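Hey all, quick one. A colleague (J.T.) asked me to put the protoporphyrin IX containing FE job into the tracker so the inputs and the structure tokens live in one place instead of scattered across chat threads. No bug as far as I know, just bookkeeping. Sequence used:
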Amino acid sequence: MATARVGATVERYPAALIVLHWAMAILILATIPIGWRMGDLEPGPLQDTLYHTHRSIGVTVLALAVLRLVLRRTLGAPPPHPSLPAWQRTLSVAVHHLLYVLFFLVPILGWAGTSAFGAPIVVWGLFELPPILPRNEPLSELLLGAHGLFSQTLAGLVILHVAGALYHAFVRRDGVMQRMLFGRTG
Ligand code: HEM
Ligand code: HEM
């Protein structure tokens, strides 16, 4: 596996992984609150739009996750920041791994649950994804329940992850944040 470029003091993630990190972060931070809100609305055009938007964002996250995993394995990434104590290193690597698992699990459960419910998945109004399961309402409830549970897990991990990143950026100021940013080296 190739290693990332070594800067004067900061070993950054490869540019493509930085772009994908922020694109996926924006999409996930948008689609979680949409998911929380859309079920509470009155049936109608606004609710339909939010469901379509939620599904379209989710499918985009899944596609970007495939690309990110491939690039992560081919381009490589810097090893944990040298200033991290062992427990933080273990925790951040574990959180990153779990996030990667959820990038796939959460949208696939959404896709499977929506297929079993029998609703169409029209991606950005452009094309329809084929169902991956036949219509089965009890199964759909189970799968969408699991989708909800794992999306809350994702939200919890994101809070932990962002808290850690902000702590490094503003309290420790140790260069961990710069690893995921473009700009000056150091
Ligand atoms: C939904 C939101 C987010 C998700 C899902 C997410 C996910 C991830 C993942 C999976 C990694 C590991 C990258 C890899 O090894 O390939 C990572 C790294 C990183 N993220 Fe995020 N991230 C999110 C938001 C943020 C935000 C808002 C910040 C800053 C405030 C941030 C700062 C960082 C930094 C600095 C790293 C590099 C950590 C290191 O060098 O060990 N992330 N993120
Ligand atoms: C990373 C991608 C995704 C995230 C973070 C996400 C997140 C969420 C969240 C937070 C909820 C609300 C759960 C609750 O209140 O219990 C939700 C509900 C839902 N999501 Fe997603 N979702 C994603 C992808 C998808 C995809 C790809 C689909 C379908 C193609 C989908 C279909 C649904 C449906 C139908 C519901 C409503 C479930 C119900 O009312 O029981 N989601 N999602």
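Adding what we noticed when we looked at it: The chain has one domain: 15-180. Residues 1-8 have pLDDT under 50 and may be disordered.
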